[in-house]
Design a protein that fits this description.
single chain, mainly alpha, Serine Threonine Protein Phosphatase 5, Tetratricopeptide repeat, 9 helices, 0% strand, rod-shaped, disordered N terminus
C-alpha cells in the first residue's frame, strides 16, 4: 500500500513536467514556464528543469528570473559547463560582455573541450577588441539600452496579460449578475402568481358563503335572526308537546270513565 501511495503522489508531478516539455516544444514559453515552476515547487532538486525554466524565462525577456533559475541549477550541478554558458548568454543579452566572457571561460575550465563555450569565448573576445579599437564603446552602450528597453517591454506585456485576466473575470461576474437578475424576475413572477391564486381562492370562498346564506332562511340581519327564529320554533314545539300531553291525559280519563259505567 505504501508503494502505491508514493507512486500516486508522484504521478501528477511527472505530468506537470511532461506537459511543460510539450508546451516548450510548441514554443508556448509562458505556459511551459508556469508548468515548470509548479513542478519545481515539488521537485526543487531537478537541475535539468531549472535550466529549462531559465530557457523559457530568457525567451520571455525575463532575464533576471532566468539568471536566478540558471544559478539554482548550477548550485545543484556545479560542474555543468552548459549552465555556465547559459549564464554567459544572459549577461550578453543584458549588455555585459565582460561578465559573459567570465562565464564562458568558467565553462572551459570545467570542460576544455566544450565547443559552445570555445565558440562564445572567441566571438566575445573579438567583440571586445572591436569596442576597444573604436575607443567609444558605443555599440556596448546601444546593447545595454536595447536590453533595458526589451526588459521594459516584457514587463508591460506581463501587465497587459494581467489586465486581460481581470477583464475576463469581470465579464464572468457580469454574466453572473445578469443570471441573478433573471432569477429575481422569475421569483417576482412566481410571487404574483401566488397572490393571484390567493385572491381567486378568497373570491371562491366568498361566493360559496353567499350561496349558503341564500339557501338558509336568514333575514337581512344575518345569523342572529336565524337563531331567533330557531328559538321561536323550539318554543312552539314545546307548546305542541304540552298540548299533546294534556290530550293524552284527557283520553285516559275518558277511557277510565267509560270502563266504570
Amino acid at each position: 500500500m505504501l508503494k502505491l501511495k508514493l507512486f500516486g503522489s508522484a504521478q501528477p508531478n511527472e505530468n506537470l513536467r511532461s506537459k511543460g516539455d510539450e508546451a516548450r516544444d510548441r514554443n508556448d514559453r509562458r505556459t511551459a514556464a508556469e508548468l515548470y515552476q509548479r513542478y519545481l515547487e515539488k521537485e526543487p532538486g531537478d537541475a535539468a528543469i531549472w535550466v529549462q525554466l531559465g530557457h523559457c524565462l530568457k525567451e520571455l525577456g525575463r532575464r533576471d528570473e532566468a539568471e536566478r533559475a540558471y544559478l539554482r541549477a548550477l548550485s545543484l550541478e556545479p560542474q555543468n559547463a552548459d549552465t555556465c554558458v547559459q549564464l554567459g548568454h544572459v549577461e550578453k543579452l543584458n549588455g555585459r560582455p565582460e561578465q559573459a566572457l567570465g562565464w564562458y571561460r568558467k565553462a572551459l575550465v570545467i570542460d576544455p573541450a566544450f565547443e559552445p563555450a570555445r565558440h562564445e569565448v572567441t566571438i566575445t573576445n573579438e567583440s571586445l577588441r572591436q569596442d576597444a579599437s573604436t575607443g567609444t564603446g558605443v555599440s556596448n552602450l546601444d546593447e545595454r539600452i536595447a536590453a533595458a528597453v526589451e526588459k521594459r517591454i516584457a514587463a508591460f506585456a506581463d501587465q497587459i496579460g494581467a489586465i486581460r485576466a481581470v477583464a475576463v473575470e469581470l465579464q464572468r461576474l457580469r454574466r453572473n449578475v445578469e443570471n441573478l437578475d433573471g432569477r429575481v424576475l422569475q421569483l417576482q413572477a412566481s410571487a404574483a402568481s401566488v397572490q393571484d391564486a390567493q385572491a381567486t381562492t378568497r373570491d371562491t370562498h366568498a361566493e360559496r358563503l353567499s350561496a349558503l346564506e341564500a339557501r338558509a332562511p336568514v333575514s337581512q340581519h344575518g345569523f342572529p335572526a336565524l337563531l331567533s327564529q330557531l328559538s321561536e320554533l323550539n318554543s312552539h314545539r314545546n307548546e305542541i308537546e304540552l298540548c299533546r300531553s294534556r290530550l293524552e291525559a284527557v283520553e285516559k280519563t275518558l277511557e277510565g270513565t267509560g270502563a266504570g259505567h
